[in-house]
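Take a specimen:
=====
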Amino acid sequence: MDKTALRFLLRERRALIAPESHGLSRPTRQGRRAPGLSQAQIDQLLHRAPDTYGRLESGRYLNPPVDLLEDVARLLGMNEHEWVALWRYALGQDPPHPLNARAGEAVPGVWQQALDGISHMAYISDRSWKLLAHNEPFAAMFPGGRVPGNAMRWMTVDPEARSVLRHWETAWAPLVLPQLRAAIAADPGDPTLCGIEKEVLLDPLASRIYESASAYVHPDGGERPVRHAVHGDGWITVCAAQPMAAPRARLLILPFRAGERRGASRLRPLRAR
């Protein structure tokens, strides 16, 4: 626990919440000059015992429960960065899930400029694999430049994908379908993911692979064979990351190497000197 950082984070957020916005009056007792909600008012709004929030803010509440952290974060209007910071300062670990259940559906608009400045194929998809942005090199990979609206649906059930993604049955499907299965396990109510799953289960080949899906859920660093619409057969290396402001969104950068031989597997890992 980092008591000092926790106190500053909570005080700063608490000061931004006007009591009047919750139907409360601003405390006027002598000596009380701090802006925003008082500690007692937070206990009142969260229906907690007196001094529950005070113990959290001061660092006296060891191992605070998840529901308390969630209630405080939502009341104080924290964003995903602050939610992560709250967990790290209070419990010394990252949260098990985003604060907002729909996090990862949008990214800052400047990401399009960032993608346009990348020479490799690159795109960003949301938490359900809907494409949010892509660059021209990525569009050039597809026949006619037709970029799919949902990357997961295209990879798993679109007939075109089975010619663009070479050796689809052995090199792609066994690695892609477990990602879909893991995403549904984490969010079984997502309508887009559930719709893709229904299509997968109706596809004889995809359903067989899906039902025997392995534990593979992370594409970062993998090499896979493709048939590029412009450059022909070759390999892409999957460089995967996550925009920090949008948990569960995905940034994929896909360097392409023409030819039948792999290349990136021979590169050494990058380590600080």
The chain has a mean pLDDT of 89. Residues 106 and 207 are 30 Å apart (CA to CA). The chain has twelve helices and seven strands.
